[in-house]
């Protein structure tokens, strides 16, 4: 059977675990050649057993590393910027170093990746960029997510800007805005809280469906956006949150 992504070369950041891992595997299962990147080499290597996935250790905040990888990649059909960091707290809990670190990881990394790989897409006269945003952004105010929500609102703005500037040159750009997803990083934050049991209860209670989303559910949306099935979509924030933002 033909895969929905046959023949496509897709670069994925933050692919070692969580949503990024699920997305990389889903892409490969649909026939894509996937270049899976992350800073965690040990976890990244686990993906080498999946047919169609190549792994590269990459710090997406390092311009030189990104440019080096770009020289190795001859063609890129889809760029998926998934890397992100969640800071907990209000603006009064956010020191300048927290602000700078979050913006560097969540926004500047996407600027660097797009700035580097977009010219290849323009040469090809086709390309597709999918950015990871969040419901915690310009979509919904969320308690204790000041700098995180600010950074993810910036991702939505970046996405719309890229979509508008390059739509006539064959480039599409959309972003995915998840709600609370069951990921290793979420569980790490829960366990680091003063009362993990209460923290999990809080996350579940705010979900109208009564459960967390799965990484596989988010990956299905990424597959759709990466495929030609979504060819008429660009500049959209695609919400997948179990109704949290209603």
Automatic annotation (TrEMBL):
<dbReference type="GO" id="GO:0016628">
    <property type="term" value="F:oxidoreductase activity, acting on the CH-CH group of donors, NAD or NADP as acceptor"/>
</dbReference>
<dbReference type="GO" id="GO:0051287">
    <property type="term" value="F:NAD binding"/>
</dbReference>
<dbReference type="InterPro" id="IPR051122">
    <property type="entry name" value="SDR_DHRS6-like"/>
</dbReference>
<comment type="subunit">
    <text>Homotetramer.</text>
</comment>
<comment type="pathway">
    <text>Amino-acid metabolism.</text>
</comment>
<dbReference type="GO" id="GO:0030855">
    <property type="term" value="P:epithelial cell differentiation"/>
</dbReference>
<dbReference type="Pfam" id="PF13561">
    <property type="entry name" value="adh_short_C2"/>
</dbReference>
<comment type="similarity">
    <text>Belongs to the short-chain dehydrogenases/reductases (SDR) family.</text>
</comment>
<dbReference type="GO" id="GO:0003858">
    <property type="term" value="F:3-hydroxybutyrate dehydrogenase activity"/>
</dbReference>
<dbReference type="InterPro" id="IPR020904">
    <property type="entry name" value="Sc_DH/Rdtase_CS"/>
</dbReference>
<keyword id="KW-0520">NAD</keyword>
<keyword id="KW-0443">Lipid metabolism</keyword>
<dbReference type="GO" id="GO:0016617">
    <property type="term" value="F:4-oxoproline reductase activity"/>
</dbReference>
<dbReference type="GO" id="GO:0006635">
    <property type="term" value="P:fatty acid beta-oxidation"/>
</dbReference>
<keyword id="KW-0560">Oxidoreductase</keyword>
<keyword id="KW-0963">Cytoplasm</keyword>
<dbReference type="InterPro" id="IPR002347">
    <property type="entry name" value="SDR_fam"/>
</dbReference>
<dbReference type="InterPro" id="IPR036291">
    <property type="entry name" value="NAD(P)-bd_dom_sf"/>
</dbReference>
<dbReference type="GO" id="GO:0019290">
    <property type="term" value="P:siderophore biosynthetic process"/>
</dbReference>
<comment type="pathway">
    <text>Siderophore biosynthesis.</text>
</comment>
<protein>
    <recommendedName>
        <fullName>Dehydrogenase/reductase SDR family member 6</fullName>
        <ecNumber>1.1.1.104</ecNumber>
        <ecNumber>1.1.1.30</ecNumber>
    </recommendedName>
</protein>
<dbReference type="GO" id="GO:0005829">
    <property type="term" value="C:cytosol"/>
</dbReference>
């Amino acid at each position: 059977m033909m895969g929905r992504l046959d023949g496509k070369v897709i670069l994925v950041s933050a692919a070692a675990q969580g949503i990024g891992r699920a997305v990389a595997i889903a892409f490969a299962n649909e026939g894509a050649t996937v270049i899976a990147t992350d800073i965690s080499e040990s976890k990244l290597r686990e993906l080498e057993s999946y047919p169609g996935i190549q792994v590269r250790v990459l710090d997406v905040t390092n311009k030189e590393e990104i440019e080096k990888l770009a020289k190795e990649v001859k063609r890129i059909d889809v760029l998926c910027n998934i890397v992100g960091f969640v800071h907990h707290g209000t603006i009064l809990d956010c020191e300048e170093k927290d602000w700078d670190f979050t913006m560097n990881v969540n926004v500047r990394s996407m600027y660097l990746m797009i700035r580097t790989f977009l010219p290849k897409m323009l040469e090809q006269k086709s390309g597709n960029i999918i950015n990871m945003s969040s419901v915690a952004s310009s979509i919904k105010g969320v308690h204790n997510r000041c700098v995180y929500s600010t950074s993810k609102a910036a991702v939505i703005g970046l996405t719309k800007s890229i979509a508008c500037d390059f739509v006539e040159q064959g480039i599409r750009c959309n972003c995915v805005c998840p709600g609370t997803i069951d990921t290793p990083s979420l569980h790490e934050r829960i366990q680091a809280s003063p009362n993990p049991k209460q923290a999990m209860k809080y996350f579940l209670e705010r979900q109208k469906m009564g459960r967390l989303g799965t990484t596989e559910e988010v990956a299905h949306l990424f597959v759709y956006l990466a495929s030609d099935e979504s060819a008429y979509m660009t500049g959209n924030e695609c919400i997948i949150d179990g109704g949290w933002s209603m």
